[in-house]
Amino acid sequence: MRSKYTIAIFIVWIGWAITARAAEDPTDTKPWEIGVTLSSRYISRGAEMLEREPAVQPFINYTYGNSGFTASAWSSFALSKRDQEEIKECDEVDFTLAYARTIGIVDITIAADHLNFIQVEGYPDSHSTDYDLAGTISFPSLPLSPSLLFINSFNRDGDDGQYLEGAISDEINLIPALPITSTLSAGYTNQSWLIDEDDTRSPGISHITLSFQHEFTVGSFAIEPVFNLTSTQNRQINPDKLAIWGGITLKHSW
Asked: Which of 19-33, 63-77, 190-204 has the highest mean pLDDT?
């Protein structure tokens, strides 16, 4: 049942993408992107997902011409300790439909996500699937390119939650021809996984993260290493006050 449910969602997603492909603007190039990230840890909104274990995270994106619509599938799988149930239950497959457009100096993105934890017993019940509605506004032409992300999570158990993240970024040119993008972000949430030791909800800052990354392009391929410093104050969601982690992404467009 688990695999059939996930396959059905993927078929709907890929069917939409193929239909869009047939009708796309012929002047548009490279609407497809496929890639994989190897990450030393999987930290999401400040929460440690895999008990400090590494993960492989394949993904595929399709952008429909110049319409602003993008369909994506993203996944994450632990690379070690897969014999442990709590690790295996974090296997994740997410499907996203997003729309982006620019109005003046503002870039706006709206996205709907369907999150699937495919190894949780009972999948696809209310404990193993979630839905997110997200909106991002960013100002890339302003100094430090400020942005604001809002996510409303709809849990099928009725335990909804909100997440807000602000970020600024800038380019560092310490080495000629090797610009490094640095990003400082901070998240605030009232989601139920941010809890106190007495198991009560405790809204607050989920994390502060400083990231450094650079993309190398070779033809239609790109390699992007990233280095992160993540500070969290809630030991219930992350065992480390300061997590040092990173990864490398290989992607191909056509």
From this structure: 63-77
Token duo for residue 26: 């012929």
Do 90 and 76 contact (CB within 8 A), yes or no? yes
Residue pLDDT, tens place only, 96-105: 999 999 999 9
Name the residue among 233, 246, 196, 227 with its Cα closest to residue 47.
233
The whole-angstrom separation of Cα 243 and Cα 237 is 12
Percent of the chain with pLDDT over 90: 65
> What's the CA angle centered on 42, arms 40 and 45, to 5 degrees?
135
| Interval 145-166: pLDDT, tens | 999 999 999 875 666 789 999 9
Query: What distance in Å separates the CA atoms of residue 236 and residue 59, rounded to the nearest whole number?
Result: 29
The C-alpha atoms of residue 119 and residue 127 are separated, in whole angstroms, by 11
pLDDT value of residue 171: 94
More confident residue, 254 or 158: 254
Residue 136 near residue 18, CB atoms below 8 Å: no
Buried/exposed 62-71: b ≥16 CB within 10 Å, e otherwise:
bbbeeeeebb
Instruction: Tell me how far the alpha carbon of residue 101 is from its chain's centroid.
Output: 19
Distance CA 89, CA 97 (A): 24
Question: How many whole angstroms separate alpha carbon 93 and alpha carbon 222?
Answer: 23
Please enumerate in sequence order all residues whose Cβ is within 8 A of that of 9, keeping only pairs 6 or more positions apart, or say none.
95, 114, 116
